[in-house]
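Deliverable D2.4 — example input (structure tokens):
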């Protein structure tokens, strides 16, 4: 007889579990989109397990279930082989699973310290004790961040670190990181991954959601590739990029293709073109854009690609008028030169 899942209500002493898994998990969103289709995968302490996949593969849905932000429509989550139900993100945290989202969830009106203390047991902030705990974590993880700084004044990189501190202060068994290196400089990425490898060796379970194949090849102990809601590939290290590339060939070819040059005119007279020429945008606490130019022609679908943290969301806001560029132009025009208003 199958054991009935129980609501996760674990004490601090019981947080030291060794494995969390999805067992035949199905997640369907209205009207009829299957985000996860009978997915079974285990994550173990002492491993860096990287989950890869193209946009829409089901990575974010998998993370939401592990972090208690959603429930399976079929199948279940298990901790050390015993089915559990994470009724909320608080349940997941209490069970020892902490997550750092791709876009960190911080209260902008609070400091780094106050954000880290949110949800911790007790009615008092215990500012001194919390500050000492964060300073120990910063020293251990090589993090340099002013914990008195207000969250609204943090850069994208600092917001990632603030969210990481908030996760680590809970001393989790498993740490889930969604695209953690996207906002880090290249030298910072290596140092960060080296720290993850050290903490993994000390027994932390690390789950990394990423698009970066070379990152997975270099640092992962285990890799799982999702494709259209199903597990397309899973293997332990060592791995090569050639083993993973077939699952990303089309998208990588598109990403690496030469960008088209802007035509001097548009062949079909009267057809509308959308032109972005040399725009610059520097919003507070978000990636800056500088010298961005591209065109889009009527009657065509034009795609704009960018990884998380690249400024793609800033470009979106600039194009729809939510942010005013400090330089450059955004215009509509016909092939005969007539401006469209």
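Example output (designed residues):
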């Amino acid at each position: 007889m199958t054991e009935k899942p129980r609501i996760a209500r674990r004490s601090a002493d019981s947080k030291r579990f060794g494995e969390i898994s999805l067992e035949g998990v199905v997640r369907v969103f209205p009207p009829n989109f299957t985000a996860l289709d009978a997915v079974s995968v285990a994550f173990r302490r002492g491993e860096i397990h990287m989950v890869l996949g193209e946009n829409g593969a089901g990575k974010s849905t998998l993370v939401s279930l592990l972090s208690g932000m959603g429930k399976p429509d079929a199948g279940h989550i298990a901790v050390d082989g015993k089915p559990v139900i994470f009724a909320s993100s608080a349940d997941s945290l209490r069970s020892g699973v902490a997550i750092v989202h791709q876009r960190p969830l911080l209260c902008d009106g609070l400091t780094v310290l106050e954000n880290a203390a949110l949800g911790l047991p007790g009615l008092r902030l215990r500012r001194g004790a919390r500050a000492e705990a964060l300073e120990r974590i910063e020293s251990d993880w090589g993090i340099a961040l002013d914990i008195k700084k207000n969250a609204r004044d943090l850069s994208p990189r600092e917001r990632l670190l603030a969210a990481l501190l908030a996760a680590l202060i809970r001393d989790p068994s498993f740490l889930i990181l969604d695209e953690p290196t996207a906002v880090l400089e290249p030298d910072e990425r290596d140092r960060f991954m080296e720290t993850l490898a050290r903490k993994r060796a000390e027994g932390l379970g690390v789950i990394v959601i990423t698009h970066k194949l070379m990152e997975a090849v270099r640092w992962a102990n285990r890799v799982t590739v999702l494709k259209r809601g199903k597990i397309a590939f899973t293997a332990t290290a060592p791995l090569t990029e050639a083993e993973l590339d077939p699952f990303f060939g089309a998208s990588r070819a598109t990403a690496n293709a030469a960008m088209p040059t802007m035509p001097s005119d548009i062949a079909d007279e009267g057809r509308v073109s959308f032109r972005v020429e040399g725009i610059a945008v520097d919003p507070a606490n978000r990636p800056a854009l500088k010298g961005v130019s591209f065109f889009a022609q009527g009657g065509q679908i034009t795609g704009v690609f960018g990884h998380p943290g690249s400024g793609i969301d800033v470009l979106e806001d600039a194009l729809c008028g939510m942010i005013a560029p400090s330089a450059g132009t955004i215009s509509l025009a016909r092939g005969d030169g007539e401006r469209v208003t």
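The chain has a mean pLDDT of 85.
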